Amino acid sequence: MIDSLINLFSNVQAWIFQVAVQPLMFHLGFSEYIEDAFDGVEWFLIGVCELIVLFIILRPLESAIPVHPISDKRARWIDFLYTVIQRLGAFSVLIFFLIDPVVAQLTEWFHLEGIHPFNLENLWPGITDRPLVTFLVYLVVLDFFDYWYHRAQHSFGWMWGLHSLHHSQQNMNLWSDDRNHLLDDLIRDIFMALIAIAIGVEPSQYVLLVAASRMLQSLQHANVRIHFGKLGDAIVVSPRFHRWHHAIGIGHESKGKGSLGGHNFGVLFSFWDVLFRTAFFGKTFERTGIRDQLPIPLGKERNYGSGFWEQQWLGLKHMVEFGRKPRR
Ligand SMILES: [Zn+2]
Ligand SMILES: [Zn+2]
């Protein structure tokens, strides 16, 4: 079954490449990037599969066990647009034009210089012979860096200026994971790809690691009353745990014990929050948003934008404004 699905995937990838991408590449004079374009098609197809699975599994769940009724359907539609852009378009193009060439050059340079920064195979010889163990170890190591990147997004004014767009969704739903500023996505994608090279992740594994991570993150944002129990929530980020990260006054603004401000920064695993004392476990499912979106004082609420371009423009403005004078 899995073999025939993998076969089908490879055949569709080859077909799209031959029929559409290859002729276009030659036509545009990009023939030297032809191999990178083949990888780009793989990312595109993975994105299509993700969208189908999310729609089949999470949409019915959102109807069956919603946290709150969606009051702004347009806001959800814009989030869907972000998901399409990020998972089908922007990411594939980004991988193709920017990350793949940079990764190839850096890998070659590391190889020539004999540098293996934190290569897991050197630290734990034989680990790469066990694919499932390797996959899980990479998932945990990458998530450790993701935790700190996310924490930085809430600590530095200019980073919060961009990331606040993600938090401004007051109707959080299964597409909200991708509601990010494009510049924010670009910086994070490059940061994570560089970490992946440093620890020796193979490109074929990286595709699967990113896909697994994105699926879990979509679940966390879904408008569903799901948690993993007391112990489960302390290990893996559940929809309830992540909703507290988006809750007004808790996720970004509050100062917990030993915390710089804000809670629940874990991307896949919540045990980082437990370990670094930023975890907050609440039993309810909170409303989401940012404190300065509330009309207090009356008429003084901050606008984070409702349409795609307005959000992107305001994100840049907030980056400059909060970078000068951080807001909590
Ligand atoms: Zn955040
Ligand atoms: Zn989120």
Explain what this protein looks like in three dimensions.
By secondary structure, this protein is mainly α. The protein has one domain (2-324). The chain has helices at residues 2-28, 34-64, 73-113, 120-123, 131-155, 157-167, 182-198, 203-221, 229-233, 239-246, 271-275, 308-324. Helix 1 (2-28) packs across helix 2 (34-64) and helix 2 (34-64) packs antiparallel against helix 3. The protein is globular. The mean pLDDT is 86. Bound molecules: zinc ion (2 copies). The site of one zinc ion has 4 residues, from helix 10.
The helix/strand class is: mainly alpha
Instruction: Sketch the topology as an H/E string, one letter per element.
Output: HHHHHHHHHHHH
User: Separation of termini?
Assistant: 51 Å
How many structural domains are formed by the residues?
1
In round numbers, the mean pLDDT is: 86
Q: What is the helix tally?
A: 12
The tally of beta strands, per DSSP, is: 0
Fraction of helical residues: 55-70%
* Sheet with most strands: none
